Fold this sequence. Notes:
Layout: H1 6-12, H2 23-37, E1 45-49, H3 53-61, E2 65-70, H4 73-79, E3 90-94, E4 106-112, H5 123-133, E5 134-143, H6 156-164, H7 171-183, E6 190-192, H8 193-205, H9 211-218, E7 229-231, H10 235-243, E8 247-252, E9 264-268
Parallel strand pairs: 1-2, 1-4, 2-3, 4-5
Antiparallel strand pairs: 5-9, 6-7, 8-9
Amino acid sequence: MSGWGEMLAYTWTNNVPPSRPSINELCFYRRYLDKVREKKRKSIRLLVLGSTPEFRDWGVEEDLDITVVDKSKEYYDTISRELRHKNIKETLVISQWENMKFSNEFDIIVGDLSVGNIEKERVDDFINAIYSALTPGGYFLGKSFFWTDNDVVLTPEQIVINFYHNKQIHPYTFINHQLGLYCLDKERFEIDFSKMYREIVKLKNNGNINDELFDYFENVGWNTDMKFTFFAPTRQFFEDKIKQKMVFVGYIDSLEAYSNLFPVYVAMKEGIK
């Protein structure tokens, strides 16, 4: 996947959930951190997949031993400007997640949209790497795009009409996931961001949205830096893959507008250390 550099990091700061973790979602991560604390109160080791500032700040606030694994030092350096805790102490490892290896294990591994950003041909490598990095009894949690054949697919025009009846929700938050489902290639398990952008442009040109609403999508990277497809498997596909190595605890409805397609998933490595 290309595009993960300084410019995308700057663009990413314009995003809101579901492209970033919400406060609501972090409550669920805390719930499973508490389960780890029941067995181990000190020196809890956190592995963050990617440079997500929300997770790194959370790690500081929870007094965790933080390691970040990202394939781009440039992206890490740039997005770190978003941190609230500027003197953060953490270890950075430059690696693709599918290839990462560690001498020590982690009690909890978190990743926002990490599944969507792996090489789809290397799902097994990714899960094997997570399994190897996780301590027995530890948890792997994240959020990503998953779908089922029963999901209702709306046209872009229908999505916008529904938005105008739910204006209390941020436009990007309300429209992103539903438009992603419309643009999903179900055979390839892929979402092409440029296709999503073309649909937004079409809505503007046809008068379905005004300039103000269009501006929410103009600088989020769909038509510029995000020159890659997003891996979007079915819920069952991902669950079956996890079960080959770990216990699949389940999908969590975070009660966000997008949680039907962007649920938080929880997996656990069996055994107690």
